[in-house]
Structures
1.
Amino acid sequence: MGHLRQEVDPGEAGLDAKALDRLDRHFAHHVDDGRLPGFLVAVARGGRVAHLTAHGLRDIAAGLPVETDTLWRIYSMTKPVTAVAALILMEEGRLSLDDPVARYLPAFADPRVHVSGTGADVRTRPAAGPIRIRHLLTHTAGLTFGFYHAHPVDALYRAAGLESSVVPGTDLARTVDVYASLPLQFDPGTRWNYSVASNVLGRVIEVVSGQPLDAFFAERIFGPLGMADAGFHVPEEQASRLAELYGDTGDGGIEPIPGLPLRGRPRLLSGSGGMVASAHDWHRFMELLRRRGELDGVRLLAPGTVDLMTRNHLPGGADLRSFGSRPAHDVPGNDGVGFGLGVSVVVDPARTAAPVGLGTYGWSGVATTTFWVDPGRDLTVQFYTQLRPKSSNVFFPELKRLVHEAVTG
């Protein structure tokens, strides 16, 4: 069940086999140079996998190869799943994009915005309006991450024990209450700042559904879609399939580093970055989106809802760089890319850092995992390795360029 399989020859799918071979050789070179442990890349058109390569090792010390059923920590690729869960509840009338978050999480009833100062000298004012569900889905709530070091509120997150975005040893409810006790960087809806918002949304889903987040995902998304290996932990019998996590050493090498505690159900279920999945699982999830809410006779969302999810929601058609606060404003790769509900959306291909089609949407994870769906080319792409780089990721622009060069029809 966990193996992804190639279903059609590249040429039959309008892909250049020589260009795809060039893609494989490029990333194999990174493995040979010791910059990556191994990788898996899959390219599909019209829902059929036309290119699939697993290369290198999932565990260097043990000598275990990357295989087509390898399990990957997908970190922030969890966020689109959390968005789909929220949209399911929205279609059932149990949630609305314009609902104040405080309706479900009272700790957010009176948000305040940072005005000036640091530490104990911080001055705040009442926010101009409430945080709404749409702000969580679009990362425009005014929340942040403690590891940014770009704003005084980031430092307040670290002082509150949120260096890694969650309070160690607590559950999601407690961590979200800590977020609510801290000031916002800006008034909700006025800027874009990638943040802990998906964890807050995960807690809203728990409150509205009456279920733990992992149970809701399993019952309403993973089960219906046949995502048999997706979840928040790896059962003992599947532990050998989980890829080891690595960090770069600063001298061009890599070394093992601690990853999420996936060998048992975690106390904190992170809708922001807690998932593990196989390439087969994620192919199923991408197909749900590509087919606008339906897969193999199972409909999770209406077509219009998926259209809403994958449309830019930043005001005036803005992109992440122009509408984002620091550090988003300083990332050249954010040119020409807007944001929908849980996914990025290309709004101006000519200004993006790598060639992609108008309306392409997707997201990435901190361990160098990524996916995108290009509706205009009927193309889906997924890439996995397990490397947490200390600086900006250089592999994704390379991947997009090489895939783009392979599309012929």
2.
Amino acid sequence: MSLDPAVRELLARSPEGPARPLTAVELRAAFAASRPQPGAVAPVASVTDLRLPGGVRVRLYLPEAAGPVPVFVWIHGGGWTIGSVEENEVASRAVCAAASVAVAAVEYRLAPEDPYPAAPSDCYAVLEWLAAGGAGPAVAPSRIAVGGESAGGNLSTVVSLIARDRGGPPIAAQVLICPVFGHPDDGHASYADFATGYGMTADAMRFFFAQYAPDPSRLDDPYLLPSRARDLSGLPPALVLTAEYDVLRDEGEAFARRLSEAGVAVDLTRYAGQIHGFYGLYTDLPASPRSHAEVAAYLRGIFA
């Protein structure tokens, strides 16, 4: 279908790209300055910022529910280079309230200062911390799902692969929203069809890869790019949401098919007329609350 009229309006008022390439530090500042401010947010019982012993920051949202409740580990996007726990306040609160789950939003180390494998190491440390009861008695340490948007979707599957391969904490499900599973040069048609003009560009993804994986020899590592994994069996059930007008659309849908072929239960939804960021960044779009409700319903079913 054509672009959602609300998306078209959003793109029309979005600023043009910079006259010169930005550094990662400049890009973070520009993103923070231009990030849409959240409007109304769902009420939750509490929001607490915590630090793991290794220094990783976690923002823990607790629902108005008798504990212990399951926990949804949320990993933000931003090409492993920008973003923070503040990025997805609306979505985190919405899912926490609607699904009656705790949400543990992770602030992992960013590239290029801390390239691969710093981010997956931090995210896996949070998984182990939660499984050991680090979040306290309100959170059930044996009932954990993981999820994220864009680079966060990538890291969610990476954490799931590591947990499978190491015999680590069990993961009930993975929620993968506009995820990064491959490389811009893998030949997916969506990279050509939506290379410019739809928010996230093909060149932006190449920039993010240059920050996160400056050594090209690492691009065959399945813990960096899950599409390189030969065996996807034994991974947790997955909810995959893609956006029709997104360079990452085709690789997300192709990976969902591979998961299903490997015997993993997969629910796949393509959000027609939407662009990258419709879930957690552009929360004024009409599709955004619908996607939050879909994620919450999925988690309720997983943890029922």
